[in-house]
């Protein structure tokens, strides 16, 4: 069981996740933390049993995750408000669905921001390392 303070969490909430084998949709509790470049998902908000995660930025910071709007049909929302998060290093894809376009866009903005932040931190480190060498 894992716990988070509000300071640790960039965004959390319910999304529907498509199964990788059966392709059925299950409601999961997702957490995007400020201190980890992963999108993690749990059984529920009350049961923080980690079921899986996708790496948003590799340790080397050379392969950020790919975010893709998905327009397949879905039984959970008219007009399908889904997106996919693909780990560039492994090719693992999470197909997700939000309850509304606004909710989906909120998740996409937060994930993009987390990726940009991770890449910026590494870029700033490289600049500082270069300055030390001079």
Provide an overview of this structure.
The protein is of the alpha+beta class. It has one helix and seven strands, in the order E-E-E-E-E-E-E-H. The chain has one helix at 101-133, and strands at 9-18, 25-33, 38-42, 50-55, 66-70, 82-86, 93-97. The radius of gyration is 16 Å and the shape is globular. Residues 126-131 have low confidence and may be disordered.
- Computed over alpha carbons, the radius of gyration is 16 Å
Count the beta strands: 7
What percentage of residues falls in helices of 4 or more residues?
A: 10-25%
* N→C terminal distance: 47 Å
Uncertain spans: 126-131
The count of helical stretches stands at 1
Characteristics:
134 residues; alpha+beta; 7-stranded antiparallel sheet; globular
In a few lines, what is going on in this structure?
With 134 residues, the protein is α+β, with helices and mostly antiparallel strands. The protein contains one helix and seven strands, in the order βββββββα.
């Amino acid at each position: 069981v894992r716990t988070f303070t509000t300071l640790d969490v960039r965004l959390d909430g319910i999304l529907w996740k498509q199964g990788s084998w059966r392709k059925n949709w299950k409601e999961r509790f997702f957490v995007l933390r400020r201190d980890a470049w992963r999108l993690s998902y749990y059984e529920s908000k009350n049961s923080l049993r980690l079921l899986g995660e996708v790496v948003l930025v590799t340790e080397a910071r050379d392969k950020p995750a790919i975010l893709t709007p998905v327009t397949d049909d879905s039984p959970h929302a008219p007009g399908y408000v889904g997106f996919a998060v693909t780990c560039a290093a492994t090719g693992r894809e999470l197909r997700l669905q939000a309850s509304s376009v606004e909710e989906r866009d909120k998740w996409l903005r937060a994930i993009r921001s987390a990726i940009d932040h991770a890449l910026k931190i590494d870029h700033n480190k490289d600049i500082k390392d270069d300055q030390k060498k001079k």
